[in-house]
Structure formats: structure tokens, C-alpha cells
Amino acid sequence: MASELCKTISVARLEKHKNLFLNYRNLHHFPLELLKDEGLQYLERLYMKRNSLTSLPENLAQKLPNLCLDLSDNALEIVCPEIGRLRALRHLRLANNQLQFLPPEVGDLKELQTLDISTNRLLTLPERLHMCLSLQYLTVDRNRLWYVPRHLCQLPSLNELSMAGNRLAFLPLDLGRSRELQYVYVDNNIHLKGLPSYLYNKVIGCSGCGAPIQVSEVKLLSFSSGQRTVFLPAEVKAIGTEHDHVLPLQELAMRRLYHTYHSLLKDLNFLSPISLPRSLLELLHCPLGHCHRCSEPMFTIVYPKLFPLRETPMAGLHQWKTTVSFVAYCCSTQCLQTFDLLS
């Protein structure tokens, strides 16, 4: 097997192959022959599916900087931070491994278009993932996600997001605000009962969501309307109602700061961590969300309004079986009262 592997790599080196298939080789270690000498700089795609790899070499980025990597169906437990040095990486497939986290350096992959990390053991995603400005397809199915960073909504090129079969109880307020994002699949997140109203008229999958659960079992803010209850993101500090006509002082101050620095300076980097606490500074850079009625940024409080999916024209697409609701997150009593999902 070893001699056959060396021969395959040697031929690829001599003939300047762009694609190299090393699937089903029962490899337990990354072949060091791939990193020796020159000749593989022409390699564009490396397929190593269905092996037993547990780690990647740290100098992979130095030797093979222009790869599309398929390392699905291995036994990888860790991806080294050096993955961020693969600056030209366009497609990264890590499905069916044993990853518990991704390094923040994944955010350095500016050319990355496809990321498949389904069927792993991930609890959350790196916040710097939103820096992958070319990312179009993100698949995180069948993990253990309970939380999705709101920064994910800032991905400018994301067209398809699949997070089916996780443990999500809520979604970021701004998910779906981007016009580029057209396909969102969150099927079989049994505790998920609310979809941001931005997702209305998008292609969504939400079968298997909305199972009954006692509110006391989840330590999150919840909002009820009739017999329906949805959970809100953990960052939300307060829930407003149509009777709350005065905004909290902290919310007013944050909105004022946001508009002042955006209109006058066009650059929030002017504010140093010395000027404001780090948590507030981060909120100014990335608010909890934007009002679904008027796009006003929101920082601590939201005014939610429920629209059961089965009572919308989209009910037929889901065979009237879903208990999920669309949630409009508004910035004030006025927006809450005037928001209409169907208008």
C-alpha cells in the first residue's frame, strides 16, 4: 500500500496533476510524500475521503497553498490554526469527522466559497467565520450547535445555509436580512420555534422543529402569544410590549452612539476599548439585529411579534404541519403596531 501510494504521488508530481485522489486508502497519517520537494505546486484539488486521518500537518499551508480540500469521512479531532494560511482555498469539506471546534483562523480564508462541516461534534461556530467574504455555501448539519453567532448574518456572499439536526432553540435576529441568502435549512432542531421574519419568502426547511418543551427547561428569555412560545437569543436583555412607550436609557444611549459615529466618522474603529467597555464596543460594531420594520439597530431590547407559519400562504409548502412561527423583531412600540408580515 505504501509503495502504491508513493507511486501515485510521484506520478502526480511528474505529470503536474491538478487533481489527486487518495480516497479509501486506509490512511492513518497524512502522507508526508505530499510535502516533499517541488512538483505539486500545480495541485488544485486533494481528495482524501474515507480514510482514518486524525490530524493535519502544520506546514500543509506552506507546501500546498492553493488547494481545494476534501477530508470528509476521516477521524479528524482537530484542525490546526495553520489552516488559515491556505489563502487561496476555495472549497473545504470536513464532513463526518470528530471535530469539536474550528480554529478562529478559518476566518482568514478570504477566497473560501464552500465549507461543509456536517456530522461532527461542534457546539458553536467561530465568530471570525463572518470574515470569509466569499463564502457562499455553509453546511453544518448534524452537529451539537445550540448557538449561532450573530456575526454570521454579516456574510455578504452567503447564499445557502444548512444547520439541520442540531440543538438550536433560537436564531440570530438578522438571519435572512441579506438579499444574497436565499436558502436556509434548520430541519430537526426540535426546540426551535421561531424564525426571523426576514426569512419569509426565502426557501426554508423547518420540518421537525417546534416540539413541546417546558420554558423552565431552557434558561433563555421567551416570548408568548396565545399558546405559542418562542425563545430569544441569549444576548437579548429585555422584551418590549405595545404598552412600553419609553425605551430603556442604555438602549437610547447605544442608538445615539451608533448613529453619531456612523454618520460623522463612518468608522467605529475610532472608538478604542478605552472609550467604551469591550462588550459595548462589540455591540456597536455588530448590533443584536435591525428592526424588521424600519432597520433601526437594536442593542439590548426587542419588541417581538409572532406570525404562525401555518397561518401564512407558505403553510401549504409545509403541509400545514409545522408549529413554527415567524418572529418580527421591532425596535419600538410604533414599529411593533405597524409591522405586517404579508404587506
Keywords:
single chain, 343 residues, alpha/beta, 9-stranded parallel β-sheet, 4-stranded mixed β-sheet, 5 helices, 17 strands, elongated
How would you describe the overall organization of this protein?
With 343 residues, the protein is of the alpha/beta class. The protein has a domain of 117 residues. 14% of the residues lie in helices and 17% in strands. The strands form 4 sheets. It has a 9-stranded parallel beta sheet, with no helix packed on it. The chain has a 4-stranded mixed beta sheet with strand order 9-17-16-13. The model has no long low-confidence stretch (mean pLDDT 88).
Question: What is the strand and helix layout of this fold?
Answer:
Layout: H1 2-14, E1 19-21, E2 45-47, H2 60-63, E3 68-70, E4 91-93, E5 114-116, E6 137-139, E7 160-162, E8 183-185, E9 194-196, E10 203-205, E11 222-225, E12 228-231, E13 238-239, H3 249-264, H4 278-285, E14 289-290, E15 297-298, E16 301-308, E17 325-330, H5 333-338
Parallel strand pairs: 1-2, 2-3, 3-4, 4-5, 5-6, 6-7, 7-8, 8-10, 9-17, 13-16
Antiparallel strand pairs: 11-12, 14-15, 16-17
